[in-house]
Amino acid sequence: MASKLKMFTSLAIVFATLTISMAGDPDILTDFIVPPNLGGPIDGNFFTFTGMRSLVRAPFPATFKVTKASMAEFPALNGQSVSYAILQFPSGTVNPPHSHPRASELLFVLMGSLQVGFVDTTNKLFTQTLQQGDIFVFPKGLVHFQFNSDAKNPALAVSGFGSASAGIVSVPNTLFNTTIDDQILALSFKTDVATIQKIKAGLSG
């Protein structure tokens, strides 16, 4: 496994060079947007996000983890049509099927390998096995996933989004962790209510 220094040097290069050309946010009529509740004049601190510093010396997590720099965490991104996420995959972990309704996603593998895929609106599945240094695009709004199938080695990736607030719709959580009636789900999946309840129990554990 690459040293942490090499890992985060690579990460710094990605942040400096990776750009998103498919912006999804509306244009703004000012250089930037300052939150109305921000008191006093702004300076360089407003345009600086330090939330990723916690990753530098931290041990690799035991479960899949996403660390985001979106408008919610970094208000200066409002109106800038860009955001990032760091994805950490211990061996055998998955980022479950989900979609981003407001942005396409550009995934760059910094360490390890990932199996990725998305399903288009004709239900065709596109998959790829990505190696360190590979980039893959997930089109806006389509259901997609990432999986580290390596039984021994972790994987690290950075995702760029063409929106300051890409949004996320988790397929498992949307279907089974909401109040959709069990009978509706059972009929939709051509199964029985008991099976649906088992799935819900597994997700809530």
Overall 3D form: globular
Query: In whole angstroms, how far apart are the ends?
Result: 32 Å
- Placed side by side, the strands forming the largest sheet appear as 1-2-9-4-7
- The averaged pLDDT comes out at 90
Radius of gyration: 19 Å
Number of helices: 5
Structural class: alpha+beta
N-to-C SSE series?
HHEEEEEEEEEEHHH
Structure commentary:
The longest helix is centred in the first third of the chain and has 14 residues, at 4-17. The mean pLDDT is 90. The strands form two sheets. A five-stranded antiparallel sheet has the order 1-2-9-4-7. Strands 6-5-8-3-10 form a five-stranded antiparallel sheet. 21% of the residues lie in helices and 27% in strands. By secondary structure, the protein is of the alpha+beta class. The protein has helices at residues 4-17, 53-56, 171-176, 182-188, 193-204; strands at residues 65-69, 83-89, 94-99, 105-111, 114-119, 125-130, 135-138, 143-147, 155-161, 169-170. The chain is globular and about 60 Å long. The relative contact order is 0.18.
List the main descriptive attributes of the protein structure presented here.
five-stranded antiparallel beta sheet; alpha+beta; about 200 residues
Summarize the structure.
The chain has 205 residues and is of the alpha+beta class.
Give the arrangement of secondary structure elements:
Blueprint: H1 4-17, H2 53-56, E1 65-69, E2 83-89, E3 94-99, E4 105-111, E5 114-119, E6 125-130, E7 135-138, E8 143-147, E9 155-161, E10 169-170, H3 171-176, H4 182-188, H5 193-204
Antiparallel strand pairs: 1-2, 2-9, 3-8, 3-10, 4-7, 4-9, 5-6, 5-8
Helix pairs in contact: 4-5
